[in-house]
Design a protein that fits this description.
It contains 16 helices and 13 strands. The longest helix has 25 residues. With 462 residues, the protein is α/β, with parallel strands linked by helices. The protein is flat, with a radius of gyration of 30 Å.
Length: 462
Amino acid sequence: MLTSLQDTITAIATPRGHGAIAVIRISGQKSLHIAQMIFTPYYTGQVIQKGKATLGYITNTQSDIVTNIDQVIITFYCNPHSYTGEDIIEISCHGGSFIVQEILQLILQHGARLAEPGEFTQRAFLNGKLDLVQAESVNDLINARTQSSLQLSFTQLKGGLSTDLSTLKNALRQELALLEHELDFSEEEMQFSSRQKLVKDITTFITHLNDLVQSFQFGKIIREGARIVITGKPNVGKSSILNRLLREDRAIVSEIPGTTRDSLEESLNIDGVLFVVIDTAGLRKTTDLIEAEGVRRTENLVKTADIILHIIDSSNPDALNEPLQFTVAARQKMIIVFNKIDIYKPDIVALLENIYKANPIVKLSAKTGEGFEFLKKEMLDYVLKEQNFPLSQTISNVRHLNALERCRDFLRNTLTSLDGQLPPEFIAMDIRGALNCIGEITGEVTGDDIINDIFSHFCIGK
């Protein structure tokens, strides 16, 4: 995208459709001029003033007969004290689709063009109002679905992660400045940077980067939701458990084995944390080609799950002979659920508890609802145990993760160079690489293609 900042852009900033009000936004050098051309103040002698809301009419003067389209309120945000850093006009009008389109067409006729997706926020970034981390958090804030994801997005919008990265960046720049000073006096072989202190500082930086990288798993869950895959043999109650969690009949429940042949995905909010719960086909050997495909898909879902709820029928003696055919990695993220405790056999449950003692165990009844509050608590505790870092030092973006991992690699190379007592130019080269990686995150050295891709995922009008 990266279109000319000389253009004046406009877009509808509120969702399309009928509503009480709608907001149309104009940004750029011609914003005020366009507003003055189409706006008639309600009170004679009034003019549009910066920082004030003005009541009046949107008027079409381009036809033979001057007509008022709507009564509106216009607010003028003068540069640089605006979201984009440019002059911005916001028109609050009635929310009928026809009214909104009429006003928008009038603005376009007076010299503005339609904004691209995310172009308002892109201009805020290009004009230095936001860095790239904050700009991305705007989109995350809009798409937040839970209290936790809202808090994480808002923390980053306020500059929590940016401030943390800025502190690291400034420290690295100081180290680099001393090394480059040595290069200026290379013939005298003067050393301005203590190698012992440099090793200590770089080691501290790497430890901090490790913390940021490790925070990604928790941050990703908060941003996108924890993927919960429900597994188990046919007829152990997987679909009934999903329905009970959602408090609605979303999955078909039947006594016929193999009823669920494909995965069913639903969202669940537990105390401000999003869970994406996936009901799957029962795990068993089958000659039915469609059911076999469902089993194969279940096995693939298990690999990407954050938590596995493995359901066991606590009333069925055959459960004692059920082999738990999962990888070590899958077993480490598994909660064992004993279903049907309303008709369970105590001796069977006692033996099952011994078999699955390495995992958290929940006993419940999909029929009566007993045990479901405890199950939700276990699911929530499993997610929150990963929250070892403040939100200001939590990352949730894959782009940030990749850049931080490369930054850490450069600093590890720096330690190798220091250990090998290499000349300062080799040490400086790796520190510059680390700085560039941080710059990619904040947008200081990010390529146009990456910037275009980031803002293309925004809605038009933001």
